[in-house]
Amino acid sequence: MAPSADPVSRLVIENVAIATVDAHDTEYASGHLVVAGNRIESIGAGPAPQGLQNVVRRVDGTGHLATPGLINTHHHFYQWITRGMATDHNLFDWLVALYPTWARIDEPMVRAAAQGSLAMMARGGVTTAMDHHYVYPRGSGDLSGAIIGAARDMGVRFTLARGSMDRSVKDGGLPPDFAVESLDGALAGTEATIDAHHDASFDSMTQVAAAPCSPFSISTELLRQGAELARRKGVRMHTHGSETVEEEKFCHELFGMGPTDYFESTGWLGDDVWMAHCVHMNDSDIAAFARTGTGVAHCPSSNARLAAGIARVPDMLAAGVPVGLGVDGTASNESGELHTELRNALLINRLGAHREKALDARQALRLGTHGGARVLGRADQIGSLEPGKLADLVLWKLDTLAHASIADPVTALVFGAAAPVTLSLVDGKPVVEDNHLITADEDAIARATRDEARRLARITAGA
Questions:
Q1: Across the chain, which distance is largest between two alpha carbons, in Å?
Q2: In whole angstroms, what is the distance from residue 326 CA to residue 307 CA?
Q3: CA 410 to CA 403: how far, in whole Å?
Q4: Which end of the chain, N or C, is more open, meaning fewer C-beta atoms within 10 Å of its C-beta?
Q5: Angle at 205 between CA 199 and CA 210, to 5 degrees
C-alpha cells in the first residue's frame, strides 16, 4: 500500500555564501542549503546533491549571504505606539513620564502595537521574536492573547514573557497604583497564560516564560513565587536586571544588597533564567551568572538611548555567560530593528575597556543568532544552520551599492548598512520575499498603529 503522507517538499538554495554559526563557525564562500519540510536537510560547499526528489523551489543565492535567522531576546511590543516620547530622559525619569500613558492601553492598541513591532523585526531578518509584556490594566481585555495572535499571524517563532508588576507608587515603586496587579492576580494570570499557550515541542512556534518586571516594580514575594511557578510548570524565567546605577542604589537601599545578590536570594539565577540589560555588573556578578548559567539579553541601542551605560559583554562572553541581543521596547529604540543591534553591539562595546578587541563581526553575528537561541533555551533547535535543525534562515542581499565593495560577506552584514532581505524562512515557510513581508500588509499595519497611537494620546490627555 502506498504511504498516505505526501513526500516532503524541498527548497534548494545554491551559489550562496553561508555563515552557519555552528560550534566551529563553519563558512562556505559558495555553497548550498537544502530545506526539507521545516528542517535543514543538508548544507555544504558547492552545488546541492543530485537527484533530490520533490524540489518545489530553487533559489540562486548569487550575491547573497545565508545566515541563521536573527533571534530577539528582549522587547516590549506595546511601546510601538508611544515612540518618540521622553527622548532626553534616563530610565527612571523615562518610566515615570510614560507609565501614566502605558497604564491606559487596551487590547486593540496592544494588538496593533504587536503587529508593528513584529513587522519591523521580521522584515529585517528576525525569525524568532519575544515580548516581555508586563502592563495589564484592569478591564483592558486579553492582552496576552492579542500578542500571541499577532505573532502567529506574522508567521514568526515566538516567546511571550508574561510579565507582571505589583509594586506601585504607594509601595515605593514607579508605576501608578492602577497600573499594577495584585500578587495573586499576577501569579494566576501567568499560570493561565502558560496553560493556554505554552508549547514545549521541538518545533514549537509559541512558548511562554514567567517574567515579573523588575526589582523596582515587583515585590520580593512575586519574585519568589514567580520562580516557584515557573519551575513547577517547566518554563523559563525573564526579568530586567542591573540596568542602571539608580537600580543598584534602589536595591541596596531597599534590600541591603545589589541586584545580582538579591536575585540569587529569591531563586532568580539559573540556566532557566535570562535577564535584560545587565549593564552594571561587577566581576562577582559576572562570575555568578557564569556559575549558574544565567543568560543576558544585551540591548545596546536602548542602553545608549537611556544613557544607562555599556554592558561588559566581552567579559561576560569570556566567562561563559550566555548572551543574546535584544531590541528592547520601541519607546527606547525607535527603529525597532534587531539587525541594527549587530552593528551597535560591536561599535558600542568598542567604546569600553577592551576597545577594538571587544567584539568582531562574527562574534556580533553569533550574539544575534546562536547566542539568542541559548538565552531562550532553544540552541538545539535554532540559532545555527545545521542538518536536523529547524529551517529558520535569512538570505541577505549584499551585491548592491551599500555592500558591493566589502569583500567579506559577514563584515558587510555587520559593519555595513542594513542589508535587504531577499528571503526569510521560518519553519521552512517564507515570511519575507524581496525585502517585503508576505504574511502581513505593511501599509495596513502602519495605519492601524498610527490610529491606535492617536487614540491612546486622546485617552491620556482626557484622563
A1: 74
A2: 16
A3: 11
A4: N
A5: 50
d(CA 35, CA 85): 44
The grid coordinates listed for 135 are 502592563
Contact between 268 and 224 (Cβ < 8 Å): no
Burial annotation 87-104 (CB, 10 A radius, 16+ → b, else e): eebebbebbeebbebbbb
> How many C-alpha atoms does 287 have within 13 Å on its Cβ side?
3
Tell me which residue has cell 549587530: 342
Q: What is the 3-state secondary structure (H, E, C) of 59-108?
A: EECCCEEEEECEEECCCCHHHHHHCCCCCCCCHHHHHHHHHHHHCCCCHH
CA–centroid distance for 329 within its chain: 10
Comparing CA positions, the residue from 426, 330, 349 lying closest to residue 71 is: 426
Copy the grid coordinates of residue 189. Answer: 494570570
Pair 272, 233: CB distance under 8 Å: no
Tens place of pLDDT for every residue, the chain, 463 residues?
A: 344 456 899 999 999 999 999 999 999 999 999 999 999 999 999 999 999 999 999 999 999 999 999 999 999 999 999 999 999 999 989 998 999 999 999 999 999 999 999 999 999 999 999 999 999 998 999 999 999 999 999 999 999 999 999 998 888 877 888 789 999 999 999 999 999 999 999 999 999 999 999 998 999 999 999 999 999 999 999 999 999 998 899 899 999 999 999 999 999 999 999 999 999 999 999 999 999 999 999 999 999 999 999 999 999 999 999 999 999 999 999 999 999 999 999 999 999 999 999 999 999 999 999 999 999 999 999 999 999 999 999 999 999 999 999 999 999 999 999 999 999 999 999 999 999 999 999 999 999 999 999 999 999 998 7
Contact 66, 385 (CB under 8 A): yes
In whole angstroms, what is the distance from residue 394 CA to residue 18 CA? 10
